[in-house]
Write a structure and sequence with these properties.
The complex is a heterodimer of chains A (about 500) and B (about 375). With about 500 residues, chain A is α/β, with parallel strands linked by helices. Chain A has 17 helices and 24 strands. In chain A, strands 6-9-10-3-11-12 form a six-stranded mixed sheet, with helices on both faces. Chain A has a six-stranded mixed sheet with strand order 18-21-22-15-23-24, sandwiched between helices. Chain B has two domains: about 90 residues, no CATH class; about 220 residues, no CATH class. The chains are: A alpha/beta (about 500), B mainly alpha (about 375).
């Protein structure tokens, strides 16, 4: 008997096939990972199950009964709940208001808040989902908001809980807490479908794994029988070589230096960056490790002129560029892979060709007397797409029509092709699948091996450990430690990142 | 994390394809919208108790039936071509210039007054200086909202609306106080022949203005498609954060785009004053600046499309007049048809929105 069985599901969007004869089945009371690269069709399959879109063909059974799900309402009444990657909460309302919205318990014609609160607390205690029902949603952390979503689903009677990339937004300690909750739910009989592309989490939490690739089911395995390597091979259809992280001893001079740099916070709050001193030499990667939101964004923007420091100096290639605008800092030799690709890194309605010169469009190479040299730009774009393996139909198609991985390859390629001695790479592989992540990490290593100074800012500790020659840990806007990578243990880093300095 | 929805990429690709549709497809679509609007207009005319056949016969003849009608259509379309272009250009920078009307008034007054002080100069020079004066005056009025937006973040829609009142009333005040032609009416002195825009079709009022308008479209299209300035203006319009990342001075581009937009709207006033009225008359514009917004919406991303859109509205205007004159059907019915055209052309955007809600599109991933 299966809690959920989906057979032969096919779904097309126009000419694109998202799911092709996909089979999926989950037992009651198991944590079942739906693993696959971005674009493999995982979310589409689960959106079909939750009634957000309809399959073109195929059969869905819940508890071995064929069902027709034409909307989320049907799904909810069948005991299916879904926690989306982007939460659907009203930020200004309280936790309890959000949870009961849509099925408000009433008493004498009024909303029965006391009763609701009692039930929320009961559910939250049973599974370790600690929340304060009276807190306003916008004031609580992302991890807590996720718990609100889970409670919401449980209170609507979910016996099958779909979690769409739930760990993407969480800090490492929050991920651990989520896993505790997931195990508690499983032990109480809930079926959890966990959509992810992260191998480590798959291995840690799941009982069984279904792997999708290019919209098809590649296989179903018991996690106990799988290895990370075997799963990668199923996901990408080949095994990935290990990075050549041959470290060249940094011998060149300091190419990028921040001296005593501070960024003031908003009125009354603590400084976003507090007297940061870092120096990056040519031929080395300095990794900045830290939990998201501890000053990483300010660091990348201050180093590239998007924000002005309230104190301190920024020195690029020996020149003081403090207070210069972004154009002159970048023109002095700074390649910059921004953490927010969609917001900063590209104009998504512009063609690939036009995006391939963003930030260089004004240079003498690409323009003459204010007129853009169209043919030079096009040749540059063709070359970029070719060298950096950007999968596209034409350089005239809007960059917004590419997949996230290909967009990022274009951004990385554009930055590494411009004349530079410094690379500021912020969250360079965020949200990318295994293949693209591997490729981009290799490019960053290659850049280091060519003698560039790389400042790598990443919330992925694995990435920092794998690539960096030295690691600086940032916590609440301060650099709390800097050492060569091999002089940290993972545990030390974890403690430093969470501000427990004395624990080391 | 930004794009991780499996469906969203495919969907945004679909959106992109829609927007990348060639100009021809868009033209066909717009033509269909016009036909649909005219069909509904026919129903309205019929319900109101008029003869549809007579109405549309007169509409067509008044717009295209002969040299005089065609000329009237072009005369009506000329100021709309400029105001439509002005609004469409500001759109490229993500700015909504609601102030074309006011910019048009100051441009008209400048062009009606400046040549009077240049009697000694040869006509060609006089006309050129007068046009530049009109463009300059419009640019100055465009500068203000651009500067306020860049400096303190004041929304351009609010500031341009308010400047419309100021500019319109200021021109009236200036005419009454300083530039009034002696006589019973508040207006400036009639421009001498050498200070007017010459007629290009003798015996009609079609002036050089329409040619200048088409040249302006060509020039600004070149600026947008080929120059660094145009690249940066579009980047600011599409994604100011990315523009900033690309080293673009976002504020300066906003001010420049508003000034160029204001200059073009100022020229709308210039060609009216120098090519049609031959003087400045307070409150002469029947809302050219506002109709320009509708034209810009219909033209969409393409500046070239401003030309057919302006001619369409010119034709509805001149045809509507003859319909009123010869068939006794109120002009308002044609204004309704104009409104329906805008509605139907804007409809795919609405359909897109509804479609996105109902499909698997995920917020965050796909973008319209």
């Amino acid at each position: 008997m299966y809690a959920v069985r989906m057979e032969n599901i096919t779904k097309r969007f126009g000419s694109v096939t998202a799911n092709e004869a996909v089979d999926f089945a989950a037992f009651p009371g198991e944590i079942h990972c739906l693993l696959g690269e971005n674009g493999a069709g995982k979310s589409t399959l689960m959106r079909i199950l939750f009634g957000l879109c309809r399959a073109d063909s195929g059969l869905i059974c819940i508890d071995d009964e064929p069902v027709d799900i034409s909307g989320p309402r049907d799904a909810i009444s069948l005991g299916i709940g879904m926690v989306h990657q982007h939460f659907r909460l009203a930020e200004r309302l309280t936790v309890e208001e959000n949870i009961i919205a849509g099925c408000e318990p009433s008493k004498n014609g009024l909303v029965d808040y006391d009763g609701a609160r009692e039930r929320i607390l009961e559910v939250s205690q049973r599974y370790g989902l600690t929340v304060d029902p009276t807190a306003v949603v916008e004031d609580i952390s992302v991890g807590q908001q996720q718990r609100v979503e889970i409670i919401k689903a449980l209170m609507r009677g979910a016996k099958v809980l779909i979690l769409d990339e739930p760990t993407a937004v969480l800090t490492p300690p929050e991920v651990e807490e989520l896993f505790v909750v997931m195990r508690a739910l499983r032990d109480a009989g809930t079926t959890i479908i966990f959509i992810t592309h992260k191998l480590k989490e798959t291995m840690e939490i799941s009982d069984r794994v279904t792997v999708l690739r290019d919209g098809r089911t590649v296989g179903v395995v018991n996690t106990a029988d799988a290895t990370p390597d075997s799963l990668v091979e199923m996901m990408v259809g080949r095994s990935l070589p290990i990075h050549d992280s041959h470290r060249v001893p940094a011998k060149d001079g300091i190419f990028l230096q921040l001296k005593d740099v501070s960024v003031a916070g908003k009125k009354g709050s603590r400084a976003r960056l507090d007297s940061v001193n870092i120096a990056v030499r040519g031929g080395e990667i300095l990794g900045i490790a830290g939990v998201d939101g501890n000053g990483q964004l300010e660091l990348e923007e201050v180093a590239t002129g998007l924000q002005r420091p309230s104190k301190g100096q920024i020195i690029v290639n020996g020149q003081d560029v403090t207070g210069s605008d972004t154009r002159s800092i970048r023109d002095s030799g700074v390649a910059y892979i921004p953490s927010d690709r969609l917001k900063r890194g590209m104009v998504d309605s512009f063609s690939i060709a036009r995006n391939s010169v963003l930030g260089m469009h004004h240079s003498a190479h690409f323009s003459h007397r204010g007129v853009i040299k169209e043919d030079v730009v096009r040749r540059h774009a063709e070359n970029l797409v070719d060298v950096y393996d950007v999968r596209s139909e034409s350089i005239d198609q809007p960059i917004g029509s590419l997949s996230g991985g290909n967009q990022q390859k274009l951004v990385v390629g554009r930055e590494l092709l411009r004349p530079h001695s410094v690379v500021v790479a912020a969250q360079p592989t965020r949200g990318l699948d295994v293949g693209a992540t591997h490729y981009i990490r290799e490019q960053i290593l290659a850049s280091r091996n060519k003698g560039k100074a790389v400042l790598l800012i990443s919330a992925e500790l694995d990435e920092i450990l794998e690539l960096s020659d030295r690691i600086a840990v940032i916590y609440e806007g301060r650099i709390v430690d800097v050492r060569p990578t091999n002089q940290y243990t993972e545990r030390e880093l974890g403690l430093l990142m969470t501000g427990q300095r004395n624990g080391v | 994390m930004d794009i991780s929805g499996d469906a969203s990429n495919k969907l945004s690709k679909k959106n992109a394809e829609w927007f990348a549709r060639p100009g021809f497809a868009r033209f066909v679509y717009s033509a269909a919208a016009v036909v649909l609007a005219l069909l509904i207009g026919a129903v309205l005319i019929g319900v109101s108790g008029y003869s549809v056949k007579e109405a549309y016969y007169n509409l067509f003849m008044g717009a295209f039936g002969g040299v005089y009608s065609l000329a009237t259509t072009i005369v009506m379309a000329t100021p709309l071509l400029f105001t439509g272009l002005a609004v469409a250009f500001a759109f490229q920078c993500g700015l909504f210039n609601v102030g074309a009307e006011g910019q048009l008034y100051v441009g008209a007054l400048a062009s009606a007054v400046v040549p009077l002080a240049l009697e000694g100069l040869p006509p060609v020079l006089r006309v050129i200086i007068a046009l530049l004066a009109g463009a300059g005056a419009g640019a100055a009025v465009g500068f203000l909202p651009g500067y306020l937006k860049a400096k303190i973040g004041a929304h351009e829609v609010i500031t341009t609306i308010m400047l419309n009142y100021i500019a319109t009333l200021l021109t009236t005040f200036l005419v009454k106080t300083y530039f009034r032609d002696p006589g019973p009416v508040d207006q400036t002195v009639l421009l001498p022949l050498g200070s007017r825009l010459p007629e290009i079709i003798p015996g009609t009022r079609v002036s050089l203005g329409i040619v200048i308008g088409i040249l302006a479209v060509a020039l600004l299209n070149y600026v947008i498609r080929r120059t660094v300035l145009g690249y940066e203006i579009q980047a600011v319009g599409q994604n100011p954060h990315a523009a900033e990342y690309g080293g673009v001075n976002v504020r300066a581009r906003m001010v420049q785009a508003m000034m160029i937009s204001g200059a073009v709207a100022g020229l709308a006033g210039s060609v009216e004053a120098m090519g049609t009225l031959y003087r400045f008359i307070p409150y002469f514009s029947p809302g050219y600046g506002f109709t320009g917004m509708a034209i810009a919406v219909i033209a969409g991303e393409s500046l070239w499309a401003v030309i057919p859109a302006a001619i369409l509205f010119g034709a509805l205007q001149s045809g509507g007049q003859s319909m009123q004159l010869f068939a006794g059907i109120p002009m308002e019915l044609m204004t309704m048809v104009q409104g329906l055209v805008i509605l139907f052309v804007a409809a795919p955007g609405m359909a897109e929105m509804i479609f996105r809600r109902k499909s698997c599109g995920k917020e965050g991933g796909g973008r319209a």
